[in-house]
Amino acid sequence: MKFAVIVFPGSNCDRDMYFAAKDQLGEEADLVWYKEANLANYDAILLPGGFSYGDYLRSGAIASTSNVVEQIRQAAEAGKPVLGVCNGFQILLEMGLLPGAMLPNEKLKFMCHYETLNVENADTIFTKHYEQQEKIEIPIAHGDGNYFCDEETLQQLRENNQIVFTYEENPNGSVGNIAGIVNEKGNVLGMMPHPERAVEALLGHDDGLRLFQSILTNWREQHAINA
Amino acid sequence: MRKVKIHITLKEGVLDPQGKAVQNSLKSLEYNNVQEVRVGKYMEVLVEDTENIEAQIDQMCDQLLANPVIENYSYTIEEAV
């Protein structure tokens, strides 16, 4: 399986994402500079964390207007897995691939520590290696992680099982304790916590690795069916 | 040339922790009559005259300058000197 890690000016978790896919998962992965990206031959797109364009205007807003975005949109429409973590999640929101928007953390502080997440939907291509309602340890690192959407959207997210991860203890003020959501089709996941920073015990936890393993398992199953 | 002055504000009902912090600071300076502070953005955009300039500015705001999920915008268009 071949992963593309999109690198924007100001991305800073791109190498962790690459490490997770390439070294810990053991699959092919490339760091792809956003201007030179040709995503046609990749099976999954990873949008890493960081501060693309210095968070100018709003986090993720400037990156969401770059040329590569059209290709990301096409990959998503084609059903390829698209994972946006932290700034990657913010970019997916600004692109409109996921509903809602990100606000500054309720307490206005940048926060960087482990959080306990509840797996609210273990039946997605990103979470099939987790148990429903399993509690997992994944670190957060953000200043603008306060997920916001209106009542109606929240209702829809709940009805469609689009809320994938919630915080056990809400660190940032997100509505519904939301830490991660998928699109209706289920192939685009945005989450503020960093699974790529928790992919081996030596780093503290390896709960994040199973997210990448889920993507791979799903891809292999699909591949076997198609073959 | 036209100068477009754009105000972007948080929608009602969207929490504004920054505004709250500024409000508390004003309180600590003993401006006790301050009821609320909401922090927004102000931009000046110089554009060449075109037909339908308002439609174009609306589009710019919807597409990029404001995030319609959390923000409202308003603007005035002036002759640029």
From TrEMBL, chain A:
Assigned EC number: 6.3.5.3, 3.5.1.2
UniProt keywords, alphabetically: ATP-binding, Cytoplasm, Glutamine amidotransferase, Hydrolase, Ligase, Nucleotide-binding, Purine biosynthesis
A matching Pfam family: GATase_5
Annotated SMART domains: GATase_5 (SM01211)
GO cellular component: cytoplasm
Gene3D superfamilies: 3.40.50.880
Annotated compartments: Cytoplasm
Active site feature: C86, H194, E196
Reactions catalysed, as given in the entry: L-glutamine + H2O = L-glutamate + NH4(+); N(2)-formyl-N(1)-(5-phospho-beta-D-ribosyl)glycinamide + L-glutamine + ATP + H2O = 2-formamido-N(1)-(5-O-phospho-beta-D-ribosyl)acetamidine + L-glutamate + ADP + phosphate + H(+)
Pathway(s) where this gene product acts: Purine metabolism; IMP biosynthesis via de novo pathway; 5-amino-1-(5-phospho-D-ribosyl)imidazole from N(2)-formyl-N(1)-(5-phospho-D-ribosyl)glycinamide: step 1/2
Oligomer and partners: Part of the FGAM synthase complex composed of 1 PurL, 1 PurQ and 2 PurS subunits.
Protein name per its UniProtKB record: Phosphoribosylformylglycinamidine synthase subunit PurQ
Name of the coding gene: purQ
TrEMBL record, chain B:
Ligase keyword on record: yes
Catalytic activity: N(2)-formyl-N(1)-(5-phospho-beta-D-ribosyl)glycinamide + L-glutamine + ATP + H2O = 2-formamido-N(1)-(5-O-phospho-beta-D-ribosyl)acetamidine + L-glutamate + ADP + phosphate + H(+)
Gene3D superfamilies: Phosphoribosylformylglycinamidine synthase subunit PurS (3.30.1280.10)
Coiled coil segments of this chain: none
Gene Ontology CC annotation, any one: cytoplasm
EC number annotated for this UniProt entry: 6.3.5.3
A Pfam family this chain is assigned to: PurS
Pathway membership: Purine metabolism; IMP biosynthesis via de novo pathway; 5-amino-1-(5-phospho-D-ribosyl)imidazole from N(2)-formyl-N(1)-(5-phospho-D-ribosyl)glycinamide: step 1/2
UniProt subcellular location: Cytoplasm
Keyword terms: ATP-binding, Cytoplasm, Ligase, Nucleotide-binding, Purine biosynthesis
InterPro entries: PurS, PurS-like_sf
GO molecular function annotations of the record: ATP binding; phosphoribosylformylglycinamidine synthase activity
Protein family (similarity comment): Belongs to the PurS family.
Name of this chain's protein: Phosphoribosylformylglycinamidine synthase subunit PurS
Organism: Halobacillus dabanensis
Highest classification ranks of the organism: Bacteria, Bacillati, Bacillota, Bacilli, Bacillales
Gene transcribed to yield this protein: purS
